[in-house]
Amino acid sequence: MNNCHLIYIATLIRKSILGEITLEEKRQLEDWLDESARHRELFDKYNNPDFLASVDIEKDMEEAQEAYSNFMQRLKPAKPVRRIVWNRYVAAAALIAFLCASAIFVYMYDGGKPHSPSGLAVVPVQQMDTVPADSTDILLITASGEKIPVQSSQKMLSVSSGTLRIDEQPIEEYAQVKTVPAEVVYNTLKILRGKRFKMQLSDGTLVWLNADSEITFPSNFDGKERKVLAKGELFFDVTENKSQPFIVETPTGNIRVLGTAFNIHCYEDEVPMTTLVRGKIAYSLGKESVILAPGQQCRVEDNKLSVREVDTYEYVSWIDEVLVFKDKELDEILSTLSRLYDVDIYYENPELKRLPFTGSFKQYEHLDKIIRMIEDCGLIRIKQDGKTLTISK
Known about the structure:
Blueprint: H1 3-18, H2 23-34, H3 37-46, H4 49-54, H5 58-73, H6 88-109, E1 138-141, E2 147-150, E3 156-160, E4 163-166, E5 169-172, E6 186-191, E7 197-200, E8 206-209, E9 213-218, E10 226-237, E11 246-250, E12 253-257, E13 261-266, E14 273-278, E15 281-285, E16 288-292, E17 296-301, E18 304-309, H7 313-316, E19 322-329, H8 330-341, E20 344-347, E21 356-362, H9 367-375, E22 381-385, E23 388-392
Parallel strand pairs: 3-7, 10-11, 20-23
Antiparallel strand pairs: 1-2, 1-6, 3-4, 4-5, 6-9, 7-8, 8-10, 9-10, 10-13, 11-12, 12-15, 13-14, 14-17, 15-16, 17-18, 19-21, 22-23
Helix pairs in contact: 1-2, 1-6, 5-6
């Protein structure tokens, strides 16, 4: 039995234990149990509270927390934000918190042998060959309407004293005319499919933009509030200023903050969600408003707001060029790949969209390698024809 299917079975067992299993999932689990006496034996052992209590994962959980804390420490505005290099040990520690249940099950199924699952599994970053990024698929549209292509190999766009700079090199000067009322001029940074970029706003706020995203921002934050407009997926690490709240306007609601770190996911045709890492934010949609605490996520479905607790790293790992998926449907994973690699997805059977996968891989790994990783699960086949991926059973 392939390892990806084992992880799926472990997910069904977990749902069964928690009483969250659906009728269809229960049928699939019972079919698996009926296949052999060994399956029934493993289920009974895995379902035994005494066994779960005897598993020593405390050390791994502490390591996961330490790795996550180190990641959060790097987001503090008092320190320069640096790229985090994840080796095999740290990556495993950071992911063990939500993979340990499935890993234990696969370990037991293989007779207690050390095991590294295939498919969408935890992939050591140092084993991967990343694709060199050098493209003009990043476009800066200034307030005057000038379109300036930006190489993705360049590191960061910054705004300071009315001047736009790329890697500390000024690209356009703005006259600081103090009129009453002062006219706020806005620029737009667009990240096309297949790229990502980072920028620093005039107040010191750092913004990471994922593929197919954009931000509209002023050259200076004048007035009573700091306002930007955002589309796609962006991570904000906002500089604190209690006298000048930070406002993010999105197509599906507005976010009001003082000083915090949070992720926005608001792609068209996908469920909008805002995940809070640090601080406190207010999310509003029409007359409805909710306050988020760290570790909470606000989702917008059918024009209604809902809040849930989440593992925030799963939603912000992309800024460290790592993609993490926990029990995510295939359609969500392939939609992410579609943006990152500028490919279109076609399903021969729409039901395949709902297949669940768990794992992680390095962002900008060669697409053919990722395709092979997914196919190794044995559940689907992926045919690549130019910029089109066809998914079949």
